[in-house]
Prior knowledge:
Blueprint: H1 13-26, H2 31-83, E1 97-102, E2 107-110, E3 131-136, E4 147-154, E5 161-168, H3 176-217, H4 235-284, H5 291-320, E6 327-330, H6 331-341, E7 347-352, E8 357-360, H7 362-379, E9 383-391, E10 395-402, H8 436-446, E11 450-454, E12 464-470
Parallel strand pairs: 7-9
Antiparallel strand pairs: 1-2, 1-5, 3-4, 4-5, 6-8, 9-10, 10-12, 11-12
Amino acid sequence: MRPREVVIRVRPRTAGLSRRIWRAILRHPEIRIRVTVTSALVALILSTTLCIVLLTMVRQHAVSDAVREIAREGGRTARAISVGTLKERISAPDDHLQQVVDVNGRVLAATPAMEGRPPVRFPPPPSNDDRRDGRSCEVDAPGGDCFLIVEYRVGSGRDAVFVYSLTPAPGLLPHPLTAALLILGVPLITGLVGYATWAAASRALRPVDEIRRELDEITATDLERRVPQPSRRDEVGLLAESINATLDRLEKAVARQRGFVTDVSHELRSPLAALRMELELALSAPDDTAPQETMQAILDNTDRLTAVVDDLLALARLEADRNFEREPVDLTELTDQEVLTRPRRTQVTVLSEGSVTVRGGRNELARLLRNLIDNADRHAAREVTVVVRPEPPATAVVEVIDDGNGIPPEHRERVFERFTRLAQGRHRDAGGTGLGLAISRDIAEAHRGTLVLTDRPDGQPGARFVLRLPQ
């Protein structure tokens, strides 16, 4: 039975640790800390890379200077050989080492530090040149383990001699002071970049902190307050502007909701009070109360309550969701149905040259037309005219015209407000809820249309509601 081989993979701990640290930094809740740490790490990497590049350049420069210097000294010795003035002891600076060796490997001359040492072993220059530069760690010479070598060849054939100039190879840090300054610059640059980033991020985020504190203090009963808006139109300034605009809309919506709740309470109080009164009278004096009349009064008040609740539900549905199902609707046919469905106190005439079709919600458009016709029927003296016609380029127009007293221009927008009843028509509008025209305009706007109140085209007294819907 062969033993099973087990392979164990060991992940380096440093890599996992660095990933966990970086992940923790990125998940830190404060933006300024994440930005500061990220910029400091980037600065550390870049400054370290720059330091390594500069140290490499400094070392290369030191190597070039050393090679140039020993090449000059070796050139002097080579010229001395050429003119025949070479001595066995070569005079040169203490850190320059030289040997002159013939083709048989015999040392002919040397500097004092190289006397008595084995000949330098180094490949000869190429045949088309008399000089070779290089580096070797296999030289028996004082001052170091590895040496820079410049080799000259003087003469040719069996008479050729080789001049070797050596100097210890510079270490990784040839200039300690320069290297120390460059290395110390890495944490200095990293710290400066981190501090500058922290200061800039704190300054940039200071308006955000003020906005947050102001928003924390704003409540539903204190909506008139606004967040501070910076003078600079940067991203934070635009954010503050958007927040203030949102607070404006929220304040208007809350004010509208409060007014709506107040109006609803007022509108529901009247039929509820009438119901209570009828019931109390029936209970206090049952013999003096006609059951038929009492039940009829209760039924009338119940119908009014039902109408108000239905209109409120319609408004709530329109505000909650305007993405109702849409289909092709013939406005001429729908108008005829609404006119014929319910009895009217006045004569209602529908004028149309044919079908006018729009795309929308059938139930919603039926309610819109019903509200307009009912409103005109309550305020008209004798007749109501409904005109359905197309209008170029692609608009359907419905005009509902009555011959009543009309509405002054300064009050024409008020009739579309919720629970609004003008004084001059209050006695005629007793059967309404005060929500019909508001619902009609909301339905028109939900269909990307308009509903306005204007004068009659013939100049006669009365009101003219004009509905425009895109086809």
